[in-house]
């Protein structure tokens, strides 16, 4: 496929791919002209793992150069699949962002997740705290606001999660003055997405678009100038329940071209240009 491709959202570290060497994943991505993979953690440990990969001398320079690190705290904890319950859970990752700001290309994966299951898991796990859903939502909003502050301080774009909280997330980003934003795999209504476009935000599209009428409608509604490509590896692949890798990014590009009735090369050219605009610290690699 012609033209360099940027995957703006992937979880590319060993804990996400325990049985597949990262070197093989990067090699397969490079073979389809993926030049940069913006690699987002969910926890501090993930963020540290990304930097270990970036500095892994057993990988070739060209493969290591593909890894573009972000750091941030996901609103859902991996253990127990529950909402954050305290604002201070973000303290260590926020310090990490400050320490590594010169080496980061963005801040993420951060955002809001108001899925009822996520809320209920936290409430059930900590009955003594007598939490309710509104308490948890406010914790998440405050943690996101602290990330927005660092985004503004260090001029780093935000890579944003907003499951079951589309308009709430956009409102929070607006209220706290976020300027550079990609809404990852946005699942909200088109009317809210249009508000994001009005604020100059980007929306990244995963390969799961092939099985998601909502994503197809989103792509039809949003200008190509506000679209980006992502895989969310190892999730959101074209086939549900099957590990996804960055080389599947071509599926996102192809489906966007199909929905918009344009050539896939135009999709790749414009989304790569958009990625360099939002993430200016990405190294413009030669494949």
Automatic annotation (TrEMBL):
Metal-binding among keywords: yes
Keyword terms of this UniProt record: Hydrolase, Metal-binding
Pfam family, one: TatD_DNase
Binding site for a divalent metal cation 2: 161, 184
One GO MF term: metal ion binding
Superkingdom in the source lineage: Eukaryota
Gene3D superfamilies assigned to the protein according to its UniProt record, in alphabetical order: Metal-dependent hydrolases
Positions that bind a divalent metal cation 1: 9, 11, 109, 232
Function: Exhibits 3'-exonuclease activities and apurinic/apyrimidinic (AP) endonuclease (in vitro). Show preferential AP endonuclease activity on double-stranded DNA substrates and 3'- exonuclease activity on single-stranded DNA.
Similarity-based family: Belongs to the metallo-dependent hydrolases superfamily. TatD-type hydrolase family.
Entry protein name: Putative deoxyribonuclease TATDN3
